[in-house]
Amino acid sequence: MDFSHYFHEYPDRNGFFGEYGGAELAPELIAAFEEINNAYQAICQSSKFINELRRIRKEFQGRPTPLYHCDRLSRKLGNCQIYIKREDLNHSGAHKLNHCMGEGLLAKYMGKKRLIAETGAGQHGVALATAAAYFGLECEIHMGTVDIKKQAPNVARMKILGAKVVEVTHGLQTLKEAVDSAFESYAQNYKDSIYCIGSVLGPHPFPLMVRDFQFVIGEESRAQFLEMTGHLPDAVCACVGGGSNSAGSFAAYLNDPVELIGAEPLGKSSHLGDHAASLTYGEPGSMHGFRSYVLKGEDGGPAPVYSIASGLDYPSVGPEHAFWKDLGRVKYTTVSDAEAIDAFFKLSRYEGVIPALESAHAIACAMRWAKEHPYGSIVATCSGRGDKDLDYVIENYGFGEEYRFDDDNN
Fold it and tell me: Are the beta carbons of 64 and 227 closer than 8 angstroms?
């Protein structure tokens, strides 16, 4: 497929990437999402909006984030060179602020007073609370009980920033239930609020909007790699839960001769309920107002999912990723909890960068690719920093003394 006109063709006017996407909405929400779509289509071509967003990215977010060559880690693995895109250095500690500031600016344009969202790992919640504080808006974050306990530092940050954190106690008490709860709240408050979905999923126009706001990741890394080396990388990889950082990482390279690899969470095993690898083990279906690949249970509904990384444990994935999978443009693979923990400690030990557990899936993917290729280069997106995961990791894995290379004498 020729991708030179891709962004003019996808999604179509109804929000579909091929057979995936769309907007399957309750009748009371159709007008609300049409309002969001019309507003976004108006301002995404506005030089005033674009220039204001660029100013915010530079002066508030601290963009561009660096592209960093992991020289020591690369030498430990062989002759293939690993680079990481340092989204962990984006203000608030992850890539999520890229779309949250855009959504906050859109809310101001629309005259809304409240931002409503779900969060799993807490990074989207922190980013949206940051955006709300910046723009002077109210903020309501829905989060499952399991994730609240697991991500206590991010819960504290949200509250300090002024957000109302709504604990979701039903079901598995994780990300899917948080999305359900946030949708219910939005249905009751859409006239004065905007729902800020935390990934490239949900009803149209959110897969488009979030992809557009996250495009800056790949746009920057592509230019930075060219400046550093004079050529493009051989491969780019990123973790895939809902798929926001990976969509932004991949989109700028679609028409380039670069291998694109999405790392899904294999969790404990390939058995249903032990992982959250929607593209690898799922099938086409619908949930939360859009069509994509879905992990289904025996009753045909969304299956229980698991990942060591709270931001990846979702039983579906963004519709554009489903489209890329079917086209064969992006290769999707899996990374287990054990591989992610190994990468977490090795990137920390050998490069002085402590990644989020979500990001550790991408680092593990890059390490695997480097072992399989005697030469070449790969860019992995470090989507967030690991501060939020330290208590959990230390409690369950200690300080990682055993996570070192066999020939390491340090």
Answer: no
